[in-house]
Amino acid sequence: MSQFAEPTTAPETVAEALARMDAIAETLPKRLKQCATFTRHHLHLIAVSTVSEMAQAADVAPSAFMRFCQAMGFSGYSDMQALFRTQFTSFRPDYDTRLAQLRPSVGADAGRLMMDFAESGHKSLLSLTGSVTSESMNGAAKAMAEARIVHLIGLRRAYAVAVNMAYYFGKLEVPCVLHASVGLQDLAPVICKDDVLFAITFAPFSEETIKLARRAANNGARVIGLTDSETCPLSSFADDVLLVRENEVGGFRALNGAITLSTALSVAVGAVKNTD
Amino acid sequence: MSQFAEPTTAPETVAEALARMDAIAETLPKRLKQCATFTRHHLHLIAVSTVSEMAQAADVAPSAFMRFCQAMGFSGYSDMQALFRTQFTSFRPDYDTRLAQLRPSVGADAGRLMMDFAESGHKSLLSLTGSVTSESMNGAAKAMAEARIVHLIGLRRAYAVAVNMAYYFGKLEVPCVLHASVGLQDLAPVICKDDVLFAITFAPFSEETIKLARRAANNGARVIGLTDSETCPLSSFADDVLLVRENEVGGFRALNGAITLSTALSVAVGAVKNTD
DNA sequence: CCCTAAATGAAATTTTTATTCCATACGCTG
DNA sequence: CAGCGTATGGAATAAAAATTTCATTTAGGG
Lengths: 276, 276
Known about the structure:
- 2 copies of one chain form a homodimer.
- Chain A is an alpha/beta fold.
- Chain A has 2 domains: 14-92, Winged helix-like DNA-binding domain superfamily/Winged helix DNA-binding domain (Arc Repressor Mutant, subunit A, Orthogonal Bundle), CATH 1.10.10; 129-275, Rossmann fold, CATH 3.40.50.10490.
- Helices cover 55% and strands 10% of the residues of chain A.
- Chain A is built from 12 helices and 7 strands.
- A 5-stranded parallel β-sheet of chain A has the order 2-1-3-4-5, sandwiched between helices.
- In chain A, a hairpin with a 2-residue loop joins β6 (248-249) and β7.
- In chain A, α2 (30-41) crosses α4 (62-71), α6 crosses α7 (110-131) and α7 (110-131) packs across α12 (256-274).
- Mean pLDDT of chain A is 85; it is low at 1-7 and 91-103.
- The first copy, chain A, binds a DNA duplex through α2 and α4.
């Protein structure tokens, strides 16, 4: 036995789990360290894999992976997996109870609120690596790199994301136009065949964004969408739709997933353009 | 039995599955249609949930959900789940080699790049909880909630963060002005004693932002800074400085830490204002 | 209003997966 | 290089989940 050495209070958040993992990694014996290393780099797999699968991928015996979970302070693999699954299920049955716990804190403690948003950010990033495929990223990057002009549209909550991309495109010398709400109507005809429109909209979807995207599609432009829901109207006519599910804290969603994806995509577009 | 009616060739992609689902939805009996509707609306749950959980959430018996899977052309729930799980696992090729060399050459693989930025985001969020204290958050939230007007300034890379806060302040009815680069000079006198200026600037620091902040301080306004380095000029005259260290990927920094902090802070300000 | 075919849900069964146990291998210390 | 404690992987066991079965209900047609 070795667990008598640990304080053995199980991590209750992804942030805690990551911290614990980093903390104990060096002290673990060979095989268990292998587990730690692999897990750290494939966090997103925990939610959807069995112990055997994880063990095999990490090249250890299932029982070794089991011991790793216990060294982390969990009672077993299922226990650990449950934590990483909440990113998807946080609005399921126990959602109400969780939310009820969060709401009181919203009123008072800004520090606590920041911890909640940080935790929420971890979860958004975890699901990001699951919901967006390598192919769709590469496809989008290639299309945008080949475009005559990349048009960016994102209103309200999505505006910050559009602004973020516009900044990187500026730095990387990717020709782009950031469409703001004024003059949306007038500018639609400008978007034409060899262009790409990158449209960002989160539920409830902005009517103006959808309208502009539809007109662009009719003009023959390629439309790539970034949204947070399968029910996004863009899905019906856009050429590609990237789906980012953001976690929420008491009804508010930070933009971690979207900011990360848009930054990676912008840099990728710049990279493709510069390797031509 | 009813499956003799179907062509019963199982969908092999998510797209095919969705098409099939839409195609058969209308022809299904009550309970099975319930399954289809729920599943269509909560696609992301399939990968991480058991039949019982899905059935319960859709308010049908597990066996009914089972029949739904078969009507879809799958042999059972596991079969269907496997399809939705591949989108998580299909995405990792040779990622390990990458992190061995902690210095990623910004290559053309957008998928890998996203993994790098996601990992970088985790690290930014971890250090966030270390470098920003609860007290400084609470102090900033209180000051901003009591201000006559909150002025926001952030240029270039920091602009997305300022835009993000402006959005939340708008929603939460916190009086605020977002200062853009045009008219910076003219607007400085507007910032006066009972106001707070929230200035966001990352290294290399934007001259205009510093200048505006300094003039605001001279006018007697309270200045709160958000930056990523101890060497920020704001430190010498701002009332508070929040420090967020962002991780980088090949020289590029995503805004995870700053977006998370600014969102939490905005919500906190709104909360303090509304509990008065 | 009855009869028939389809649909439904509870419970039994089978299969898969998690977890524990233990004999063996390994590495360290004296 | 012997002796001891730890680490390890395979095999046994326990738990959980998927799948099937079947008695009962429901809806529609004659």
